[in-house]
Amino acid sequence: MWKALATSASTKFLHISMDVNLVLWWISVVLMVIVTFAYALKIIFYFEAVRREYYHPIRVNFFFAPWIALLFLALGLPPSVYQNLPHALWYVLMTPFLCLELKIYGQWMSGGQRRLSKVANPSNHLSVVGNFVGSLLGASMGLKEGPIFFLAVGLAHYTVLFVTLYQRLPTNETLPKELHPVFFLFVAAPSVASMAWANIQGSFDFGARIAYFIALFLYFSLVNVTPFTKYLEPLLVLCHDSKLIHFLCVFLIHLQAVRINFFRGFRFSLAWWAYTFPMTGAAIATIKYSIMVNTVVTKCLVVILCTLSTFTVMGLLVTTIIHAFVQRDLFPNDISIAISERKPKTHRRWYHHRRAGSTDIDQFLKYADSAEAKDIEAALSGSVELISTSAPKEVSQD
C-alpha cells in the first residue's frame, strides 16, 4: 500500500517517501522468517496438531495465508532492493496454490461431509483470493496466460462461494463469535480481482471497476459506523422534512446497530487480523482507481481508506504484542484440533506419526450435524467432558 502511495501519480500530493515502503518491507520479511521458523518447530514437535489443522474444515483455509503473504512481499518489493523478479519465482509461489486448490475444490464438489454447502464459511475466501493475488503478481511481471488461468479459476469459485455464503443454506456450518472478523474477507477477493483484471487489460476498465465497486459496497456494509451515531440522531430531528435524508439517517442508525451486535462481545484473538488484509486491499484498489478517475472525491477516499488501514494494523500489532508478552493469553489451549477418540501417544517425534486419514474430523463433522450442535467450533464448548477425556495431552498443551 505504501509503495502504491509513493509511486502513483494520483497521490503525489501526499509526498510519500519510498523509505516508508523499504522499512515496512524489511520488517515484513523479518516477521515472515520468525513465523516460518516457529511453525517449522510446531511441525517437528507437534506434527499431530498440524495434521489436525490440515484436516479441519475451517483451519485448512489458513494454509493459503503464508503463500499469499509471500506474493504480497513480492508485489511490495522496493525498487532499491531488486528491480525485475524472475518469472520462475511466480511459478514456484503458485505451485502450492494449485496443489491445495485441487484438493479443496475437489472436496467442495464431491466431498460428502466436506462439500461446499456443508462447510462454507468466510474463511474459505482465503482459498480463493490467492488466485487473484497470484494473477496480479504475474500480470505485473509481464506474464499473460498463467495470470489469466488463475484469474478464471478464482472468478469461477468466488462466484460459487459468494452465492453459497449469501444463501446461508441449512447445511452451512456457522462460525463462532470469536471468528466474526473473518467476515471482512468478503472485501478482499473483489478488491484484488479488480487490480488483477486492470493489470491484465492494461487499464482500470469497466470489468475492473465492477469488481472494485462490489468490494467498496461490501466494505461500507461491514464497517462499524459507531463514532458517527451521535451526529445522526440530531440530524434526524433537524431534517425531518426531507424524506431522503430522514431515510438515510434511519438506515445508517439501523446499520450501526446491526454492525455493533455482530462485531462486539468477544475477546481479542488473532482472528482480528482478518480486518487488515481486506482493508489494505480495498485501499490499494482505490489508489489504482484514483489514477483513472482523479477527482477530489477519489483522493479523499484514498486518504481515508489508507489511514484506516494503517491505524488498524498499528493497533492490532500493539494489542497482539501486549496479549502475547504482557498478559500472555494470546494462545489459549487449542481444543478444536485436539479432539481424538484414540489413546494419547507416548512419543512426540514427528517421524513416529503416521497419517491416519481424516476419520477423527469426519466423526466430528457428523457430531456437529446433530441437533445439539450447529456450529463447527461452537460445538466444542458443549463437549468439554468428551474432550478432557480423549484429547492428547501434548496437543492440548500446544
Automatic annotation (TrEMBL):
Entry keyword annotation includes DNA-binding: no
Membrane topology category: Multi-pass membrane protein
Signal peptide extent: none
Coiled coil ranges: none
Gene Ontology, cellular component aspect: endomembrane system; plasma membrane
Compartments (UniProt record): Cell membrane; Endomembrane system
Presence of the UniProt keyword Phosphoprotein in the record: no
Keywords from the UniProt entry: Cell membrane, Ion transport, Membrane, Transmembrane, Transmembrane helix, Transport
GO BP annotations listed: intracellular monoatomic ion homeostasis
A molecular function (GO) term: voltage-gated monoatomic anion channel activity
Pfam families associated with the record: SLAC1 (PF03595)
Segments crossing the lipid bilayer: 23-41, 62-82, 148-167, 179-198, 210-232, 244-263, 270-289, 301-326
Gene3D superfamilies xref list: Voltage-dependent anion channel (1.50.10.150)
PANTHER family (UniProt xref): S-TYPE ANION CHANNEL SLAH2-LIKE, S-TYPE ANION CHANNEL SLAH3
Family: Belongs to the SLAC1 S-type anion channel family.
Protein name, per record: Tellurite resistance protein tehA
Organism: Solanum tuberosum
Gene that produces this protein: LOC102580958
